[in-house]
Amino acid sequence: MNKQQTRIIVIMLAIALALAAFVMLRDRAQPAGDEHDEHAEQGEHAEDKEAAHADEGVIHFTPNQITVAGITVATAGPKHLDTFIRMPGQIALNEDRTAHVTPRAAGSVRDVSADLGQQVRKDQVLASIASADIAGQRGALTAAQKRVDYARRNVATERTLWEEKITARQDLLKAEQELVEAEVARDTVRQQLQALGAAGGGGSGGSNLLAIRAPFDGIIVEKHITLGEVVGADTRVFTLTDLSTVWADVVVPARDLDIVRVGTTAVIRSIASDTTAPGKVSFVSSLVGEASRSAKARVVLANPGAAWRPGLAVNVDIVTGSSDVPVAVAREAIQTVDTRQVVYKRVKEGFIAQPVSTGRADGRFIEITAGLNPGDTYAASGSFTIKAEQGKGEASHEH
Q1: For residue range 300-334, what is the model confidence (pLDDT) as tens digits?
Q2: Where residue 119 sits, what CATH number does that domain have?
C-alpha cells in the first residue's frame, strides 16, 4: 500500500467518525426536544382542563338577563322564624257585630232609604212602615196622657177643698193615688213605643209611621224589603254588620287540639293574594265532629279598609314556637335537583347550584344549616327560571 492510498483511508475514517458523532448528537438532542414539546402540550391541556373546571357548573346569566327574567337576588343572613302548623280556614262575619234588623211591628212599607252595600251610621233611618199597631199604641199614649192631666187637676182641686176644710183628707189622698196610677199607665205605654222604636207622643200627622233605624255603625250586607210590601214584626228586612273586625273560622284536627288554645298567636294568609295579618285564637270548640274528627276554632282579625271579605278562603298558621337562626333564605329560593335541595348562589358569570341542608321554616323563610354562609347572595324569587336553564345546559352536554 503506497502513501496515497493510506491517506485516502485515513480521510474516509475521519469522515465516518464525524458522521457517527453527528448522528449520536442528533439522537441525544431529539428526545429532549420531544420531551419539551410533550410537556408544553401537557401544560396546555392542564390549562384547558383548569379553565373547563372553573366554568363547570356555572349557569350563565348576564345582569340584563337576570332583570328580564324577573330574578330577585337576596343576601343570606340571620332571621327570626316562627314555627307553625297550617290549617284551612275561611273569613266570616263577626257575629258579635252583626244584626238582623226587623221592624218589630207589622205594617206596610212606606219608604226605603238604605241600599245594599251602603255604609250607615247608628240611628240612621233605613226604612219606614205604616203600622196599625203603632197607631194603636200612640192612641193609647194620648189617652193615658189625658188621664194624667185630669188626675193632676183633680188633685189640685181636692187639695184646695181640704185646705178650706170642705172635704176630708182621705179624698185628697185618693186623688193623689189616682194621679200616680195614671202616670204609671202613661209611662208604660211610652216605654212600649220606645221598645218598638217609635218613641214620642201621639198626634194626628204621621202617628202610624214606624222608622226602622240602624242599631250601630256598619254596612248593609243583606236587604229584604221593597216599597209597598207588607212585612211582619219579625221579618228580617236588613242584615247589618260592622266589618272593622271579622272572624277567621279554622278547622282544627283532633290531634292538634292540645296546641290550639285560646290566646295562641296566629297568622292569617290569603290564598288569593300575598295578604297576611296577625291575630289571636279567641275560641276553640269543646265538641269534635263525629265525621270530620275535627273541631272549630276562631281567630278575631282586625279589618282596616274591609280588605278581608267574608267567604274568602285562607290559611291559618298557628304559631307553635319562635327562634333566631344564623342563616336563612327565602322559601322560594329552595329548588330540588336530582333529589337534592339546592340554592342558586350568585357568582360573577351567573349562578351555581349550591347543595344545602335545611332546618326550621316559617311561611316566608327557611333555615340553612349547611351550604351557605351569612352574606352569600342567592336567587330568591325566579329561581325556577335558573333551574330550567340548568336543565337545558345538561341536555345539550348529553348530546
Answers
A1: 999 988 889 999 999 998 888 778 899 999 989 99
A2: 2.40.50.100
